[in-house]
Amino acid sequence: MNKAEALHSFYSSFELTAYDENTIPDNAVLPYITYQVITDSLGNTVYLTASIWYRSTSWTAIQNKADEIAGRLGYGGTIMPIDGGYLWLVKGTPFAQRMAEPSDEEVRRIVLSIEAEYLTKY
Questions:
Q1: Burial (CB count <10 Å: 0-12, 13-18, 19+), residue 111
Q2: Segments making up each domain of the chain, as ranges
Q3: What does the pLDDT look like over 86-99, one tens digit per residue?
Q4: pLDDT tens digits, residue range 41-92?
Q5: Which CATH architecture has domain 3-119?
Q6: Cα-atom radius of gyration of the chain, to the nearest Å?
């Protein structure tokens, strides 16, 4: 699995459709997750953001999903095997931030901050 596939696999594992933030189809239906694909090699920390999107009048369901992702990352992060090494994902600071959507008051968004280390030679 390459680096981009590993990121997709991680974000898709939360029972929501996950899209690279540059490939969201026009017909995408909430809820879903969008995420950045930024890669590097050994010795560099990459700072990523992902967004959870829901349509609701409440923050409960989306906050539960953010908590689920936080739980998977835990205190020490999660490590995934990738081609030529590993991907280590940990919670960034601040981890989660609620965002308003001015164009639609029923759209709920939580932006997640995640640090990634690509433990690879390339």
A1: middle
A2: 3-119
A3: 999 999 999 999 99
A4: 888 899 999 999 999 999 999 999 999 999 999 999 999 999 999 999 999 9
A5: 2-Layer Sandwich (3.30)
A6: 15
| Alpha-carbon span 109 to 99, nearest angstrom | 5
DSSP E strand stretches across the chain:
17-20, 32-35, 45-55, 78-82, 85-99, 107-119
Neighbours of 66 (CB within 10 A): 20
pTM of whole model > 0.85?
yes
- String of DSSP letters for 28-57: --SSEEEE------TT-EEEEEEEEEEE-S
Residue type, 83: D
Nearest CA-CA partner of 8 in 48, 65, 47: 48
* DSSP three-state, residue 25: coil
